[in-house]
Amino acid sequence: MTPAHFSFSSAFILGLMGLAFHRTHLLSALLCLEGMMLSLFIALALWTLQFEATSFSTAPMLLLAFSACEASAGLALLVATARTHGTDRLQNLNLLQC
Fold first, then answer.
1. Strand pairing partners for 89?
2. Could you tell me the pLDDT band of residue 95, with boundaries at 50, 70 and 90?
3. What does the pLDDT average to over 28-53?
4. Which of 23, 69, 73, 83 has the largest count of CB atoms under 10 Å?
5. Helix 3-21 vs helix 26-51: angle between axes, to the nearest 10 degrees?
6. Do 77 and 26 touch, CB atoms closer than 8 A?
7. Are 14 and 35 in contact (CB under 8 A)?
8. Which positions, given as ranges, span the membrane (predicted)?
9. 86 torsion bin: left (phi>0), alpha (psi -120 to 50), beta (else)
């Protein structure tokens, strides 16, 4: 495994571990998701450059567009929960209570 592959894999795994173990605030969960998406974008971009595949050259940009949409939806949910509940702590959110 090359050092570049190791760094992207470790960045993705660290983001996944942060998402799994530090679930106290919604903002920290969103940051972990964005870190995972950024490592996927860089890995996919380097993969298309390494194999010189012109048919896959739009895939990193498509992933980046979906990542931006995911980030905007997450921030909208963050603002909505902060306004209704007063905090972004995930322990205060209950789906059974409206």
1. 25
2. low
3. 90
4. 23
5. 160
6. yes
7. yes
8. 6-22, 29-49, 61-80
9. left
In angstroms, the CA 34 to CA 70 distance is 9
- Report the alpha-carbon distance of residue 40 to residue 14 in Å, rounded: 13
Contact (CB, 8 A) for 11 and 62: no
Burial class of 39 by CB neighbour count within 10 A (0 to 12, 13 to 18, 19+): buried
Torsion sign over Cα 28, 19, 73, 57: positive
pTM score? 0.84
Check pLDDT > 80 for residue 96. no
26 token code pair: 């919604």
Q: Give the domains, in start order, of the chain with CATH numbers.
A: 1-88 (1.10.287.3510)
